């Protein structure tokens, strides 16, 4: 059995997803343990760990699911507070909400879809942008410490939503026949080329698109999370495990951690923007009656 204090450290480290602290608490070997997928994403069940509920219950959730729920709840509450009583002269929160919706509308929806299609798909694209952003940003929020999109499940769900949206747009706006004809048989190509081109377009549109959307979002957030843990974990190791003169090595790792935090903030916005923009492009291409 571990001593009580070490048990508490292990539990706390598991909750905050800090592999260096967890490894030190378990092994006490005084060595630096870099972040790994086993430590970072094999997360303990939340209700089982903190409330003693049996871990075989279907409603139990691990910490990353809890982080996703917190992120989406925060988004819903903020927008509800901003628009529950809209005014002609908006207050600060309403102005912030309108600024956010206006950003998506002017920089993604209007530029790609135009006014007619934009009105139809703005709610979906705005919800997608802010949902991804709020789940991304949890990776740099103390106490949450992991992005809700840094495991493959959520990016896959979002990619499926995008997939359904552009197929629906193709069926609804262009018609089933026109959609498949434009997608698989691009006009202006000599007919013998369709033997080669049509299978490539089939794989590209109906397989590569959703897979690439999911992988781009997932890998950016996962790698960023591991780099943050590496920087701050190494800082903790130099200061609290080695100590003495070796503590000076914590300066570059701590600086690197702060720089990576700013980079992750930029990545959180950029990946939400890219995912939403590509979804809008796919919808526009699918809805077009002619190419």
UniProtKB/TrEMBL annotation:
Molecular function terms, GO-annotated:
proton-transporting ATP synthase activity, rotational mechanism
- Entries under InterPro entries matching the protein: ATP_synth_F0_asu (IPR000568), ATP_synth_F0_asu_bact/mt (IPR045083), F0_ATP_A_sf (IPR035908)
**Keywords from the named record:** ATP synthesis, Cell membrane, CF(0), Hydrogen ion transport, Ion transport, Membrane, Transmembrane, Transmembrane helix, Transport
Q: Where in the cell is it found?
A: Cell membrane; Membrane
Membrane topology annotation: Multi-pass membrane protein
Q: Which positions, given as ranges, span the membrane?
A: 65-83, 121-141, 153-171, 191-208, 217-238, 258-283
Quote the cellular component terms of the Gene Ontology held in the record: plasma membrane; proton-transporting ATP synthase complex
Q: Which CDD domains match?
A: ATP-synt_Fo_a_6
Q: Which PANTHER family does the UniProt entry name for this protein?
A: ATP SYNTHASE SUBUNIT A (PTHR11410)
Q: What does this protein do?
A: Key component of the proton channel; it plays a direct role in the translocation of protons across the membrane.
Record family assignment: Belongs to the ATPase A chain family.
Q: Give the protein name, as stated in the record.
A: ATP synthase subunit a
The organism encoding this protein is Pseudoclavibacter endophyticus
Its gene is atpB
């Amino acid at each position: 059995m571990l001593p009580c204090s070490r048990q508490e450290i292990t539990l706390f480290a598991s909750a905050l997803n800090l592999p260096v602290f967890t490894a030190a608490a378990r092994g006490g070997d005084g060595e630096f343990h870099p972040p790994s997928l086993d430590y970072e994403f094999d997360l303990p069940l939340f209700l089982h760990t903190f409330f003693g509920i049996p871990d075989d219950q279907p409603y139990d959730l691990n910490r990353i699911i809890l982080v996703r729920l917190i992120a989406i709840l925060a988004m819903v509450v903020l927008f509800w507070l901003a628009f529950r009583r809209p005014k002609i002269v908006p207050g600060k929160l309403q102005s912030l909400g309108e600024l956010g919706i206006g950003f998506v509308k002017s920089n993604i929806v209007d530029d790609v879809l135009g006014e007619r299609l934009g009105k139809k798909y703005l709610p979906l694209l705005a919800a997608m942008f802010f949902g991804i952003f709020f789940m991304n940003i949890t990776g740099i929020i103390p106490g949450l410490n992991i992005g809700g999109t840094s495991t493959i499940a959520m990016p896959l769900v979002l990619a499926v939503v995008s997939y359904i949206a552009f197929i629906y747009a193709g069926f609804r706006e262009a018609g089933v026949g026109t959609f498949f004809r434009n997608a698989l048989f691009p006009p202006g190509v000599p007919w013998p080329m369709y033997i080669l081109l049509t299978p490539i377009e089939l794989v590209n549109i109906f397989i590569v698109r959703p897979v690439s959307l999911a992988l781009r979002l997932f890998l950016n957030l996962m790698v960023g999370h591991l780099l943050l843990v590496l920087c701050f974990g190494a800082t903790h190791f130099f200061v609290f495990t080695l100590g003495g003169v070796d503590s000076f090595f914590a300066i570059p790792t701590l600086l690197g951690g702060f720089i990576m935090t700013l980079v992750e903030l930029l990545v959180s916005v950029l990946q939400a923007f890219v995912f939403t923009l590509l979804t809008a492009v796919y919808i526009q291409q699918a809805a077009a009656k002619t190419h």
